[in-house]
Write a structure and sequence with these properties.
CATH architecture of chain A: Orthogonal Bundle
Radius of gyration of chain A: 18 Å
Distance between the termini of chain A: 44 Å
Helix content of chain A: over 70%
Number of strands of chain A: 0
Oligomer: homodimer
Largest interface: A-B, 21 and 21 residues
Number of domains of chain A: 1
Number of helices of chain A: 10
Order of helices and strands of chain A: HHHHHHHHHH
Structural class of chain A: mainly alpha
Largest sheet of chain A: none
Shape of chain A: elongated
Amino acid sequence: MDRRQRKTREAIFRAFIDLLAKKDFAQITVGEIIDKADIGRATFYSHFETKDYLLKELCEELFCHIFDAMHEEKVNHKHIFDCNAPESVFLHLFQHLKKNDNNILELLSSQNNELFLQYFKRNLGKLVASQLYLFESRKSEKLPESFWISHITSTFVETLKWWIDNKMSESPETITEYFFLAV
Amino acid sequence: MDRRQRKTREAIFRAFIDLLAKKDFAQITVGEIIDKADIGRATFYSHFETKDYLLKELCEELFCHIFDAMHEEKVNHKHIFDCNAPESVFLHLFQHLKKNDNNILELLSSQNNELFLQYFKRNLGKLVASQLYLFESRKSEKLPESFWISHITSTFVETLKWWIDNKMSESPETITEYFFLAV
DNA sequence: ATATAACCGAACAATGAGTTCGGTAACATA
DNA sequence: TATGTTACCGAACTCATTGTTCGGTTATAT
């Protein structure tokens, strides 16, 4: 990819995340983004069809970043998905989220987290569904599978929200414990 | 209240709910609302400061409607909040929601339910907090109270969402059972 | 060295938000 | 029934924002 394209794209994302930390998505204008990113108007529209697509691509990038990083750690340490420690997948997720590599936390500030978390939930659901055997219990037998998957996924996201609202003061280990107690 | 004011207000709400059933809140314009409601532009703005306030007032009205109706039933039948049947509060909520008196279900269609449910959750949280003793269990001892309240509230809302997505084909009794199994 | 592709910037039309104002009709009160 | 008040109409208006266009300029790849 052309270095110019890459720099422009990064400048837009940076400006966008900065603005998201301050105000709601709906209130952010394209004018503000291009001013902060210091690029021309036409350039913005040559990169992103609309403001909504910008958000969508940002969410995708963050999401991939989290799961790719998780995947790498998995390969290096080789102790994830250990059947004796089913909670390790989620522990790693919480750990990675706390690292806040790409200012993810700013995106997750209470105003806009709904947007990313919705996206997050849709994809996390697939992971949960594929790892459902980890959650077998007395409860799961009495509930429809789709309800059960949806409940686990939602509980993860709600746990994450609670953690963020609490300034992430607890350790990832503690949060993982809360998650498995709740679910 | 002046009959003219009441009629105008109702026409606006009606048009707004109709539109919400078809498209996302962000895509609805004031122009569409006043066309459908068949009123003047200035009239709209004399009733509602902005489109956002219209949504806020609609949510408040729906929310009050649900809880007021619940309150009446409570007075008439006198068997809610029976300590032997802690689930009855939530059963009544599910029952009332299924009745769909004011086209609530259209507002809760998957596109926009996030908005109302957020509002719903904020207020339901207070109810849960005041009735927390109903949920005492092995789990609750090990979790911070604020986490526990937030989890119960979220699980209720997520259960409701799942029910709506499933066309509300289950009975309120079954859903109440699912809710108490999950939480 | 040269062709290509990205960027600039300035202008443009189109849309929607929210306001203003003079005229009309419905309401409450006496 | 007469009168003053208040809500509504409708049409025009300003303003902010969106998304597009185009000719000129600069960075990049080969």
